[in-house]
Recover the amino acids of this structure.
């Protein structure tokens, strides 16, 4: 009986760590036999590019965004297309700043704004970027160069955000994307900056709000590779208050789970490469891992009087919770404590995201603060 209990506890422990430890270790082992990252193409002629900026309540930042894109240094022709999602004020300011503007008659959400923008774009190479994202110099050129490879349907850029534990998390996800790309294709993109090939684009379904994750999975599903370009970067302000961060992250995670539900055929064992990436990169650490953590907390609570290990485990979790509370109150924590708080917070976010998914919260038109 004790052996079975020990094995059960070990299995739960491995489950908790699978997405954050086991999968990265597997990637590290597989990429060890790859001598170098893929080499970014250098097109002989730089084709025209359309930069699509979906915008809703962005009147205070949109002019700066248009100027930022135009000043990025792309060696070919650049068209900035602002898709104003039922927002006349943003549309007017964008036009005055020199952008082409597509004004939608009513708000349909970011995914449908992207569909509308891609539909009217006259170039094969397209960049998608958020209105509040500031590009680092040369990012457009580095990003879209990968589209010179016809097997590449989309390209993920790099996002710089946060500090402390949050920055460590972004570095971790960047390493994951780099390793996956080294093995042929990544599964993760950030809507703040990415590129797509128009001929490879399929419209995002109307019930999808997590546009970047859908694009990435859909490209992989249809046989295209998704490249990763870490030197094409955007800088975004941190999400804001703790409440705003919680709302956004649980919304995104819940929406991502809905994407995975729609694309559940990709989990088939007949597609072991892409299936293992989905489980390792996203699904396990968004579902089974956090639920296993909850199970361990329940077991530890029930055995706290008789087990020193349970006592240590509960004290560690209590400390992590206190670190999260401290961060929510903007207390400057040491880096190790900040990292622990970030891990604990993301576990809680995963549980919150699962609740939103089960409740059917698709968040197609969420309440968005004006910028």
């Amino acid at each position: 009986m004790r052996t079975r209990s020990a094995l059960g506890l070990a299995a739960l422990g491995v489950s908790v760590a699978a997405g954050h430890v086991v999968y990265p270790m597997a990637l590290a082992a597989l990429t060890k036999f790859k001598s170098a990252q893929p080499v970014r193409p250098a097109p002989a002629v730089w084709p025209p590019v359309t930069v699509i900026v979906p915008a809703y309540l962005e009147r205070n930042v949109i002019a700066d965004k248009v100027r930022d894109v135009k000043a990025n240094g792309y060696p070919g022709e650049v068209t900035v297309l602002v898709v104003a999602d039922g927002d006349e004020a943003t549309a007017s300011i964008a036009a005055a700043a020199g952008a082409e503007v597509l004004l939608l008659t009513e708000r349909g959400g970011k995914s449908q704004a992207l569909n509308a923008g891609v539909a009217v774009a006259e170039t094969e190479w397209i960049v998608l970027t958020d209105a509040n994202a500031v590009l680092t110099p040369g990012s457009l050129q580095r990003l879209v160069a990968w589209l010179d490879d016809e097997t590449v349907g989309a390209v993920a850029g790099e996002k710089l955000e946060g500090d402390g534990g949050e920055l460590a998390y972004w570095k971790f996800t960047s390493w994951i994307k780099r390793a996956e790309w080294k093995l042929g294709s990544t599964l993760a993109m950030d809507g703040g900056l990415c590129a797509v090939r128009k001929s490879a684009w399929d419209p995002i379904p109307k019930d999808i709000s997590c546009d970047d994750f859908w694009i990435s999975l859909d490209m992989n599903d249809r046989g295209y590779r998704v490249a990763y370009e870490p030197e094409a970067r955007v800088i975004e302000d941190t999400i804001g208050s703790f409440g705003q961060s919680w709302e956004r992250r649980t919304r995104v995670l819940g929406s991502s789970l809905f994407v995975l539900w729609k694309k559940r055929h990709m989990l088939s064992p007949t597609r072991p490469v892409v299936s293992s990436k989905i489980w390792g990169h996203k699904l396990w650490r968004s579902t089974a891992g956090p639920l296993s953590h909850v199970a361990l907390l329940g077991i530890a609570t029930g055995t706290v009087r008789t087990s020193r290990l349970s006592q240590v485990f509960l004290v560690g979790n209590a400390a992590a919770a206190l670190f999260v509370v401290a961060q929510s109150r903007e207390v400057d924590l040491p880096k190790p404590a900040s990292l622990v708080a970030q891990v604990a917070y993301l576990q809680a976010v995963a549980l919150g995201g699962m609740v939103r998914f089960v409740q059917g919260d698709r968040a197609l038109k969420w309440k968005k603060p004006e910028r």
Q: What stands out?
A: The first helix runs from residue 2 to 31. The mean pLDDT is 91. The CA atoms of residues 260 and 283 lie 8 Å apart. Residues 49-239 form a domain with the Spore Coat Polysaccharide Biosynthesis Protein SpsA; Chain A fold (CATH 3.90.550.10).
